[in-house]
Amino acid sequence: MLDLRHYRYIAAVARNLSFRLAAAELGVSVPTLSVQISHAEDYLGMQIFARTSRKVWLTRNGTVFMAAVDDVLQSARAAEDLGRNLTRGMTGELRVGYVGSAAYAGILQKMVGRFHSCFPTATITAEEHVMEDLPRMVSDHRIDVALVRAPVELPPDLCGYALTTDHFVAALSQDLQVAGAGLPLRAAALRDVPFIVPEQEFGTLEVARRGKFEPHVVSTPGSLISVLTQVALKRAVAIIPNMLRTSIHLEGVEFRDIEGPAIPSGIVGIVRADEDIPLVQNAIAVTAEMQAEMWREKGVTG
Amino acid sequence: MLDLRHYRYIAAVARNLSFRLAAAELGVSVPTLSVQISHAEDYLGMQIFARTSRKVWLTRNGTVFMAAVDDVLQSARAAEDLGRNLTRGMTGELRVGYVGSAAYAGILQKMVGRFHSCFPTATITAEEHVMEDLPRMVSDHRIDVALVRAPVELPPDLCGYALTTDHFVAALSQDLQVAGAGLPLRAAALRDVPFIVPEQEFGTLEVARRGKFEPHVVSTPGSLISVLTQVALKRAVAIIPNMLRTSIHLEGVEFRDIEGPAIPSGIVGIVRADEDIPLVQNAIAVTAEMQAEMWREKGVTG
DNA sequence: TATGATTGTTAGCCCGAACCTAACAATCAT
DNA sequence: ATGATTGTTAGGTTCGGGCTAACAATCATA
Question: Which nucleotide is the nearest neighbour of B28, by CA and C1'?
Fold first, then answer.
């Protein structure tokens, strides 16, 4: 069977129409080239080149054959390029999983956009999942990166990076007459109000802790838009990330800050601590850089 | 640089997901395969396969890389197939040159049609040229096959095959009052008639020889349709292949057989005597076969 | 839990083939 | 005619792919 060397030698002779020049270009001796070309011709059973001891030219069939030779060399080059880019982390496959509120926070769009411009030949997939499943999916190599709503505790094989900062606020039905309209809401005032609890229940638990009561949970919908809808329908309250104030306006729902120190929220990116796929490593670096830019801008503007 | 062996080994392991089975399939020992896969991985700088001493599977990057591996192997296979088909004369390039009247005789269409069905992957070109140039074009390797109007004398490096048989007839203007309407035309009767001479002037010369006169040549147009037109316009006569009777009807022109033994015409295929391109050799064989079929049919029907 | 079977890796040797130099053959230029 | 240029042939060297043997690691079974 011919190997790539034969194809490279054939292509070189065809380019130069001279064994001497082709041998120089290839860095081999003329006899070596001559013998190898002969081997290829013997194997194929046809002359690729016609030659006097003074001139070399392609035969008719040789001319037709050259198209296939170029194909072989091109695909071999493409394979090595692909290998190089995979090892350098310039291409490959990147699987992102995210909770719905990562899209509201805008971080998902920014990340995917940045990935596409940094790694244009990479395949990037992004699928929404419930927050409960996401860390496990990263652990099990079913996805490479997860975007979840902070805070979250991680098993030792995973590590997280804070990508956006936010804090919890209360979203409550306008039908409720809670004291101090316009002012920060006291946690204790929610003792007897029905609670709608989003996937990230940390805010709810913290408010209950501050108010020293067990929250009266009436529903735990899947998405934040459902949470707000339920708040309106059930004359209830929900403790949700402040970011939603700017993203969602729903008739009958008002937002109130919560009295006391801000309850931290934000989006966290989760990856495997021992990540060894170069593209994913690069993606993490790019994300960190992007986050630094965002926080720098934020620092300047506000 | 990786060569085709590496790609074949990688593909085999990926198919079998086992070094043992892949080695058996490839007909090499397991250690050989193991070392070669390692070489490829070292060269690329990435793991293609992950393995415990009990299981083998593709890495993420390995999966992406396999597409390129398949490309390389497919193009290599295609190249060898092409080489084989070129050697066996099943594909390649076939250049046909023909005189216009070969198309009227139908032989050109039959030939090209037959070529396409026999050699579907071959590239077949057919160009019209003046009869004078065609034998030289074959000699000079500018075309592979020439279809000309018999008779023709050939240089020793060419040889010809009679493909169709025909004979010359007279096409003459109806305005001429030549004796013996409806009967074979006597050559001597054309002594004072203006002659339109087609590319193949043999018929004209033979008629003049039989009539023992120098023909009064008034025009030598390029195509047979022009010859007939000129016959009508110039109240002249032309000695042309009988085949045209069935192909062309032109107002003001009548056809008359010529008295005496039939003056032979027909289409001749010309090729190089030392032709060494397998496709062309096969094309000649196919044409000969086709001609035999045609003559057999003719013998049966008439 | 121990033992044997299965599978991939490492080590050491062998041999084919790619490569080189030298000598040769054939063409072209002066 | 003679020397220069270019491809081929011949013979020796070396690199590396291939093999066997020994090893390591896992899994199955007793």
Answer: D18
Residue B173 lies in a domain: yes
- Out of B39, B69, B88, a domain closes at B88
Of B56, B88, B120, at which residue does a domain stop?
A: B88
Q: Is residue B302 part of a domain?
A: no
Name the closest nucleotide to A9, judged by C1' and CA.
C18
> Which among A1, A75, A93 is the nearest to B75, CB-wise?
A75
Q: For B32 and C12, how far is CA from C1' in angstroms?
A: 14
Domain that holds residue A53: 4-88
A143 and A16 fall within a common domain: no
Average of per-residue pLDDT across A89-112: 93
Q: What is the pLDDT along chain B (302 residues), one digit of tens a residue?
A: 899 999 999 999 999 999 999 999 999 999 999 999 999 999 999 999 999 878 999 999 999 999 999 999 999 999 999 999 999 999 999 999 999 889 888 899 999 999 999 999 999 999 999 999 999 999 999 999 999 998 899 999 999 999 999 999 999 998 887 767 778 899 888 988 999 999 999 999 999 999 999 999 988 888 888 999 999 999 999 999 998 888 888 888 989 999 999 999 999 999 999 899 999 999 999 999 999 988 888 765 54
Cβ contact B80–A2 (<8 Å): yes
Check whether the bond before A261 is cis (ω within 30° of 0). Answer: no
Smallest Cα distance from B90 to chain A, Å: 11
pLDDT tens-place string over residues A34-43: 999 999 999 9
- Interface probe for A, chosen from B42, B71, B140 (most Cβ of A below 10 Å), is B71
CATH code: domain of residue B259: 3.40.190.10
Quick one: A158 and A183 in the same domain? no
Look up the pTM and report it. Answer: 0.86
Assess whether A97 and A80 both reside in one domain.
no
Judge whether A71 lies within some domain: yes
Same domain? For B275 and B256 the reply is no
Same domain, A178 and A258: yes
Instruction: Please report whether residue B117 resides in a domain.
Output: yes
